[in-house]
Amino acid sequence: MSISLNNIPSKLPNVKTTIFTTVGNLARKHNAIDLSQGFPNFDADKKLMDLVAKAMNEGHNQYAAMQGYYGLRETISQKIEKGHGKKYHPEKEITVTVGATQAIYTAITAFVHPGDEVIVLKPAYDCYEPAIKINGGIPVPLQLDADGYQVDWDAFKNKITSKTRMVVINTPHNPSGRIFSRDDMLQLQEILRPTNIILISDEVYEHIVFDGKEHQSASRFDDLASRSFVCASFGKTFHVTGWKIGYCAAPAELMHEFRQVHQFAVFCVDHPVQRALAEYLKDEGHYLELNAFYQKKRDFFLEGLKDSKFRFTPSQGTYFQLLDYTAITDEADEELAERLILEHKLASIPISSFSVDNRDDKVLRFCFAKNQETLERATAILRALS
Ligand SMILES: Cc1ncc(COP(=O)(O)O)c(C=O)c1O
User: Fold this and answer.
1) Are 309 and 328 in contact (CB under 8 A)?
2) Which of 147, 158, 214, 212 is nearest to 185 (CA)?
3) I need a surface site. Which of 71, 181, 256, 307 has the fewest CB within 10 A?
4) Rounded to two decimals, what is the model's pTM?
5) pLDDT, tens digit, for every residue of 33-42?
6) Which of 209, 233, 245, 367 is the pocket-test mutation for ligand 1 (most atoms within 8 Å of CB)?
């Protein structure tokens, strides 16, 4: 007898294969230039890879501590204190995770009970809502307007009910490339202050901020920090998305509950990679130089689009650029994204997939974490579109 799923309901019946997989597969099939998924097409620093090899050769090949290798947690603690003036205790307040995705999933699992509401700002990265739903929670979306993707904090406040357990924010923001200002964070802090709401602050692009602006981490704001999981990704910062390693920082009480789940979900994370990162992070130039590195790429990409029919506001952070194509066609964004792959061999992400009810604002997202030659070929294709 074979298994039948007739009487076993799906826990996520309405979740489709992620747009990244769908578009990525199509791009590969048609040999398209892939500016869809958020990963670099250049390699990480050889020094970092050598440090991983060194850790392996020195025998760090068995389980690490459940919370993460202590030396790495210490270095992370110093990094946050230097960058944002907030001291997280390495023993009790920092946990190394399998990328930011696992940090976010675990924090949601640890605190969201059936019927709890979680406010999500849309368009949103796609891992938040399935994690909320699988725990019986109810995502409460707040759609941001494509004209600037600013948060209307009054509208946000109106979404809060007695059932609101959590809020998820993301700055710098994927897909819009917008960053929260200090004023945004202060407004959020004032709204949450009288509540018992937990904040997940997804800060995976913390080191990719442009034009001299500063990343406003939730850890900088005392009351926000007291209720936040600040989630970060070494994959994004060191061009190693395939290593899936990140961390989160939170006050000890919150972190205790987080670890109750973490220890049985993954127990611990890749040990030699943690050793290597602990060493590599000691040179802060390795991450502080990222703003300028990616700003050059953004500027090169946008310079190549100067004479195109796309409309855009330069990305303020992340390695994504949104392009509005209303002057070119009135096709739906999914249709245009598909046509770009099939006819022009260029892959992008249609933004409707991140929005409430797949709202189509006629914008596509392009990842500019690519080498010069790829960006040149991509912009030539985009310039020729009319
Ligand atoms: C906003 C955002 N959060 C989280 C992640 C996942 O990060 P990680 O690869 O470290 O799990 C991504 C990856 O694209 C992202 O864009």
Assistant:
1) yes
2) 214
3) 307
4) 0.97
5) 999 989 999 9
6) 233
Find the helix or strand (DSSP H, E) in which 111 lies: helix 99-111
Q: Mean pLDDT in the chain?
A: 96
The token pair at 332 is 């739906």
Pocket residue to mutate for ligand 1, from 23, 95, 174, 209, most atoms within 8 A of Cβ: 174
* Exposure string over 232-243, b if 16+ CB within 10 A, otherwise e: bbbbbbbbbbeb
> CA-CA distance, 34 to 27, in Å (whole number)?
6
pLDDT single digits (tens) 316-348: 999 999 999 999 999 999 999 999 999 999 999
CA distance 247 to 170: 15
Q: Which amino acid is at 354?
A: F
What SS3 state is found at 209?
strand
* Residue pLDDT, tens place only, 155-198: 999 999 999 999 999 999 999 999 999 999 999 999 999 999 99
Q: In angstroms, what is the span from residue 150 Cα to ligand 1's centroid?
A: 21
- DSSP 8-state class, residue 107: H
Q: What is the dihedral of CA 371, 377, 382, 385, to 10 degrees?
A: -170
